[in-house]
Amino acid sequence: MNKTITKQVYFLIILLLTVELGFSQTIISAKDKVINIGVLAHRGKERAILQWTPTAKYLSEKINGYHFKIIPAYLDELSTFVKHNRIQFVLTNPGNYVFLESNFGVSRILTMQTEEEGRTLVRYGAVIITRADNNAIQKLEDLKGKSFMAVSAKALGGFQMAWRELKEHGVDPFTDFSNLDFAGLPQDNIILAVKHGKVDAATARAETLVRMSETGKVSMYDFRILNPQYNIESPFPLSTRLYPEWPLSTLPATPRHLASKVTQALLSMDTHHPAAQIAHMAGWTIPLDYSPVHELMKNLQIGPYVELRQTSFLAIVKRYAWWLIIMGAFIISLIFLNGYISRTNHRLKETERNLLNEIVERKRSQNALSRYRDTLEEQVETRTNDLRKTNMGLEKSRVALRELVRISSAPDLSHDERLARLLDTGREYYDLPIAVLASIETDKQTVCKISGDTKLAPKQGGPLHQKCASILIKCHGEPLDIPNIKQAGPTPCMNDAWHSYLGTAVLVEGQAHCTLEFAGTQVRDKPLSKWDHELLKVMAQWIGDELERHEAFESERRHRSEIARASRLSTIGEMAASLAHELNQPLTGAINYSSGCLRMLKSSKYDSRKLMLGMERAIEGATLAANIIRHIREFVQKEDTQHNLVNLNSIINSATTFVLPEARRHKVNIQFELDRHLPPILGNNIQLEQVILNFIRNSFDAMESIKSEKRLLTITSQGNGETILFSVSDSGEGISKENLSKIFDAFYTTKSDGMGIGLSISRSIIESHRGKIAAKSLPQGGAEFSFELPAAEIL
Asked: Which of 104, 248, 380, 735 falls between 20 and 30 A from 49, CA-CA?
């Protein structure tokens, strides 16, 4: 039953992915350049497409102007694709990568990570298995004379890892097995061959056996693991050493800027991203050291080291055996002949002297070799320490870069919070007590953000040091690194509060906009490394990008506010006639009541009760006119963009006061269905009122062509505690399918005198309130415009 469900789910995923890919192909821009990623299909091409297509789609979304496509291939096909430049990137196993690197010059940019039982893995191994009931095979030495199956002689996890272990246990797979069968991919077939008794033993990637066991294809109890090994870095059963995971590599012809964009996009991929989950991985990391793979190939004399096998002593002996026998016989004859001729004391003495000289020379050479060996060991140790420090620095930089990417892409952080987090990350990375981001102005410099010990900052504000900041501006983005201010010679950056300094200028649109400065209370032995300086420039660039984005956002917000205000002015202009009539009624009533009261006062006989009632009615009419004028003024003025707790029903009632005169003129019957228990929302009442007016007036226009007795407008509000839904339904002609898909686009209109901005502005307003806007045709005729907003969280 579980197997059937698994197959059905697998088929459904493939079907959904196929439909999604088909739809995606229809919307790819003609300007997008197709980038092919060759992937080794170690478990079949269909599974490779299913596993890696979401990653290609992720890259297409992250990198504008490019469409990434997965090209599954087997080992020989992959070499052909690389040779003829049919692909731009290649994802393959480490063994095949070393081969492609040596023969075609590919270079790794990332290493794949996997996650098992909550741990992130970057290395993998293989298993050598036999049936659990095969008691004749208990260890690797028992495989002599048995049949064996693997993927390919070129497959690292599918054969070469096991080959190395077999060789170290005295088993040559090419001569000691009764039959060595290379079954190719997928590896599932190899494990099934052992289960069904078709071969005595086989090898495959360790996780392949576990994955098949998890899906119910096989049971772990059906097999015996030969040469079992335990490694804390792997949760899987192993028979071999661990080797670095698959690398993603670029071809020599692949543009460097494209490789850099792909590297940044994949490093920023979250470990729980759907693309990572489908690929059975946990994101990517910087490329690992692949020297273990080189060591394996050198041990087996394969790949780039095949020449070692061709030039070995045994190979030469086997190839030139007869010539060596003839030459040996000839040399022996010459030796006997020379001995016979050279039996003289003079020749013996000269030979003895030559031998003594040779012994002296050999001792001298041995001493020189000994000294060189000692020096070489010191050099190797020094180089190893340098590499260890470099790796630690790279790991530290990788963690800092990932944190910077996370901060820059976090949607829930405000502009100020993002800048503060960036400063905190930089200060923690350089282990310095204070970081200051100061803006550059014409007459003075002010502090934007301070992170760390504020006592070290100047009391008058501005950068850490004015003269240092001036130097940074002149350097135009290059770092200024002073490890010891007192020993730096004549420098304008002298200060008693701190003793080391690091800073750079933040460029916005090619010009210095801010200064980014760090200071330490302790001196440093030497300047920071080149990588630290590069990270500082990257941090300054990201801060500059954030400032650019914030300024663009503010400009767009101001522009959108002006357009909305123009739309409201246009709306008021269109409703002017109806509003004039609406104002005329209360003003006329006030005038009439005032005139009547005046006549009563002129006559000496008047009723004070009637006089008071007339004055009250006149005041009511004047007050009503004043309220209408105030409401119009509030609606057309520049609104405050700040959001407050408001009641949607109150906004609906306020908006409908505008349209009641127009509804009477159009002979439209308005029906209200309002939920009286709506929770408050966090919003701007003027903006929401504008959206409601746009909906109502569009419905008025849509009902112009139908009979007046059928013109019905229904205004509805309802809430469920978490969201609030507002809708306006009319009995007009409805919306065609062609117009429905474009009705919220800017400057799209079906009216001859329309501007096409009303509904576009409405969508922008609702989306700025974290809501959704929609329109649809009703089955009974007419149309419905609606929006949904989240209820406010009241603490």
From this structure: 104
